[in-house]
Amino acid sequence: MIAYAVDGKCCFQHSTIGEEPQVLQGFVNEHRAVATPEVMEVYGLQREEGEQRLQNLDGVSSIEAGGEDLWTL
User: Fold this and answer.
1) C-beta of residue 13 within 8 angstroms of C-beta of residue 6
2) Do the Cβ atoms of 69 and 40 come closer than 8 Å?
3) pTM of the prediction?
4) Does domain 2-72 have CATH number 1.10.10?
């Protein structure tokens, strides 16, 4: 996964097509901050389910950044 910013918005792309995503806690631990749409894309989730899973992670909290939730450790 490669993340970058364009005009203040977080953009991302997969580094390997067909690659299995890691466990969500590990994903957040590795990237330190992830946006809800990023989690939706990587894990194939709807917004509500993605946010619920993120809320259930240990030590993860959200802040609003640019009109989008950013989940951090």
Assistant:
1) no
2) no
3) 0.70
4) yes
Q: Note whether 3 and 10 are within 8 A (CB).
A: yes
- Where is 11: in which H helix or E strand? strand 9-13
Residues 6+ apart with CB under 8 A from 11: 3, 4, 5
15-37 pLDDT, tens per residue?
Answer: 544 555 679 999 999 999 999 99
Give yes or no for a contact between 59 and 27, defined as CB atoms under 8 angstroms apart: no
Closest alpha carbon to 72 in 21, 27, 41: 27
Token pair of 2 as six digits: 């490669």
| DSSP helix/strand/coil, 20 | coil
Q: How far apart are CA 5 and CA 18, in angstroms?
A: 24
